[in-house]
Amino acid sequence: MKKHLLLFKGMMMAISLFAFAGVSPTTAQKTTLERVHENVRETAYPQSMHQVYLNPPPLILPKSVHEKDASYQFELSNDKTFPAGKTITADAKPWLMFSPHKVLDKGTWYWRWRKVKDGKQGEWSQPYDFQIAGDEPKFATPVYETFRKNLPKGYPRLFCFLDNDLKTARANVASHPEYKEMLNRANMGLNYEPAANPYPKARPALAFVTYLHTAYTLTEDKQYADKMVEITRAYLKSTPDKNLLRDDFFCGDLIEQLLMCYDVCHDMFTADELKQIETLVFEVAKNHHNPMRTGYEETHFFNNHFWQHGFRQTLEIGLMFYEHSEKAREMLEYCYELWSTRAPAGGFNRDGEWQNGTGYFTANTKTLYYVPSLLSHITGFDFLKHPWYQNAGQSLLYAFPVGTMSAGFGDGNERQPTPDRQRLAIADFLAREIGNPYAKWYASHCTRDLRRDYETRIYRMARVAKDYPYTKDLPADRPNAVWMEDMGEVYAHSAIQNTNRNVFLSFRSSPFGSGSHTLADQNSFNLHFRGVPVYRSTGYYLNFKDAHNILSYRHTRAHNSILVDGIGQPFTTRAYGKITRMLNGENITYALGDASNAYCGTSEYPMWIKNFEEAGLAQTPEYGFGETPLTKYRRHILLLHPDIVVIYDELEASKPVTWDWLLHSPVQFQIDNAKHTMTTRYEEKQFSSVAQMFSNQAFEMTQTDQYVAPPDPKKMKKGVKYPNQWHLTAKFQPCAQNRILTVIRIMPDGNKEKVLSRKGNVFTCERWKIEAELDPAKPASLKIFNDRNNATFSLGDGDIEIGNTTYKRLEQGSSVLFDKIDGEWLVHEMSDYQPQFTGAGPEK
């Protein structure tokens, strides 16, 4: 994306403009861009309509061109005639991607491709062109040959990147703070007795083998290796049932065990046993670890299980057997090129967070640490220079702060009340490897939970040379809010270092839409204080596709957003949102989300069509699905630091509709329909919250603690509580246009009550004055002013009075912030930013 910064001097303040290419802010509404990202690639990438994410960009073909037993050859040049000497011509490979492996010069580039089959070369395609602007992040990995020629020889090799560390770590391993825990778990491994047929228990056995592998690698105590050999021989004495092989988790867990044992116990097996293990690994891998010639992984946007574990395990198979297996060598090359083009996080996410949400981040952490460690060690190139890794330290903390629930987006986000061990393990990894100060502080303040992570323990105990001291403070210049521009999320904090004082506002309007493990929650927000949710999405992730998941967890009704005629957003990447503006200062954090395209009918994905049928449901208005006449849904949301939230909604439809404004709480609301207030009391944390709504349209607020589809008791975990939650609906009488202002006040016990008064369209709360245009026939307008320090926000038209100075707005309908930014009082003006799309462009 491009940010053009224009700085003016000579006034009483510095003035800067963020100008973003996009639609006029006064007319922004539902667009003709069907989706930002295609779930399965239908459009060759990149083309002239695309703005590339990295330099160099990957070249990717649509899935539709894939043909069995065919290979694909690419050419790339900055000359459209593709002359010799100025053209990169790749060898034909049986996959639909190509990485140039070099930074491209600024200017226009051209690429083409052709199919090669049965020794015959097809015709070159018409060339595509794209621009390199010169300001894209640069990340050019070495060519595969560099990786191939430096592959480790001899065993063990799975953790070759720790070889030098292990030589010194073993001498003092008994003094390591995780040593006792490591031995306790290793003893659990020693006590594990595989059954005559161990395969049905192969998945839980992975933990025991991991305990043994870690202990043996760090101590070289042979009893742990002996047990690993015993477990492996039990597998070799029987054959896995074909039904088990349908489960990719089973296959992956079994493969990991066999590879760990083969690697560190190599000299303890006979030649026949080694061959048996290799044969078994490849037999199991046929089911879910054989992606090289399908064209699927390089063109599919979401394939979670593959990226969580299948990719890493495929890479490990190649690493283990490449010397005597052509299949293994192909696995290695494919994985290397796939990581270079589509990883991490799908390849079109530089934010350092996971587009599927915090709940599923944990499933990816082992791969996220292991793969770049291995590739960097073998090639000598730092794979952690990818923007995703460079941004991850800060993003991990801001999305899931210490002592607090997470931002609250994506499947399983509600399961962890505080940061989980896997998340902290990747933060610790970033602290050690790139010295990220946010990651250091994060890991330092969650040491106990970090040390529980056994999957990455071998790394922490080996790499003691990169231990870092306890980090007391975050960087002094840290922002109080961050914008995940690729993901479409904003996280704002009033006091991120102090859980007891921190107000945490998270907001989502995502270009990734609602698919995979993301939810139908565009333009939704969550609010936390003192580590607990004030308002948060509801329901429980017990199953991916049952009635509770579909209707009361994934559906828009479970989130703090809106329904149109009772209808929410479908489960598809077509149902996307976008954060088009974000401004941030010491006193005011502002974001604008546009979910005008999110209410787009029903899901077309075969998986969801099948899931609805199996749950006995239909994508009909009766269940909250279907077409709507919505044309505009823009939500302006602000945190007035430290503890006031303002929401200003612009809603329009092509005909009158009922608008359901939704708010969810873990505790009951006290509703006053005369004053339009919703009060919640949080006794344990000693605070209250009051939300108050204003609109020119009539509405009534009701609440319930019942779900449209309650969670299935049979799927609830023993010992886990699943309390009902409270769901408030402010239902507006049918109208085609609506404006809604909501002011939320967090009030800790013992503090002065924050009184909100109104005079016309001007609202006053302590030092803040809020003026909102509630007449939908007039242009949208929102003005906020702090009478103590002159901090000012303005949405709308016309000049702005800031103190004794008049600021002349540069674009009608823009958002303007005057605040202390990076230590200096500045004016920032912003018009609409449009996210970078990777599929087909808007309809002509």
TrEMBL record:
Residues 35-191, 210-448 form the Heparinase II N-terminal domain. Residues 1-21 form the signal peptide. InterPro entries: Chondroitin_lyas (IPR008929), Hepar_II_III_C (IPR012480), HepII_N (IPR032518), Ig-like_fold (IPR013783). Residues 481-687 form the Heparinase II/III-like C-terminal domain. Keywords: Signal. Its main location: other. It holds the Pfam family Hepar_II_III_C. It is found in: Cell envelope. The keyword Ligase does not apply. This is DUF4962 domain-containing protein. It comes from Bacteroides gallinaceum.
